[in-house]
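explain this:

___
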Amino acid sequence: MQKRYDVFGIGNAIVDTEVQVEDLLLSSHGLQKGIMTLVSAEDQAALLEGLSGYAQHGAAGGSAANTMVGLAQYGGSAFFSGKIGDDMSGALYRESMAEVGVDFDVEPASGAPTGTCLVLVTPDGERTMQTSLGAAAEIDVPDVDADRIAASRFVYVEGYLFGSPTGAKAAVAAMEAAKQAGVTVSLTLSDPGMAEHFIEPFRNATREYVDLLFCNQFEAMIYAGVQDREEALKMLGQDSPRVFMTCSGDGSLVYDNGEITRVPGYSVPVVDTTGAGDIYAAGVLYGLANGMDNATSGKLGSFASARIVSRMGPRLSDRLGDHISAILGGADPTAGI
């Protein structure tokens, strides 16, 4: 079958509100730094109300959606499946995806509002998320388009989907459809909290379906149950033939059928880590979909990730695809390209 898309992505459609706060605020509210927590809309609103004096930034988000946007910015073709509400936020979300060239054609939920995430960013750039899924929690098997999956080179599944019963079913259905169509299945573990609380569903899905696993070093160590990142990487490699593991400023490690490749990172001032892993995956998927090797694909991911952590927000506005030669030639991610 002729491939229409490089990647079919599926995940939670979320509208982000980012707020820069001090570490003291996290501790005063009993929030665990660097972790995503599912909360009620009421609890989220109460916390947000207390932050009225802080600078805030809103944007359409969601992990897999961010990856699909990053892929489009590299010049790739992407479809995103995520559930929004039949409301103003949902309409803006749909419009934002169209503006960046990501196909998005999913029926809105009836009654539930578009999901929202309150992202608290501390001075070290770390993000702590309070998420009210809203309509996003209603994504289900009927939202999995098997024909579009068959017309894609990769399927990319967001690990956050395992936080809701129907989301988990949709995730598995997407992977099963990809497997039946001979499409490469990729999964991201998404968050240390998700890796801790949904470890068995992750392991089952990875062993059954996953060809390409994305994670950071902390998620990997939780998954593997060890404290050494390279040992964790090798253990993940027993469940998935290829693993891309990000290691913050140390770059990333790639496991490919027993061989480990180190991909250097970039030393940049960290402002906000929101979306860093998402856009890393975007660069990798773009590279692999276009015949690049693991190291080259990882470099595209590392560049985009370094670029995004040096500013606020989960998405870039850059047309990265216009600068691939410069990126591979050693361009500075903090400079104009």
Summary: Residues 5-328 form a domain with the UDP-N-acetylmuramoyl-L-alanine:D-glutamate ligase fold (CATH 3.40.1190.20).
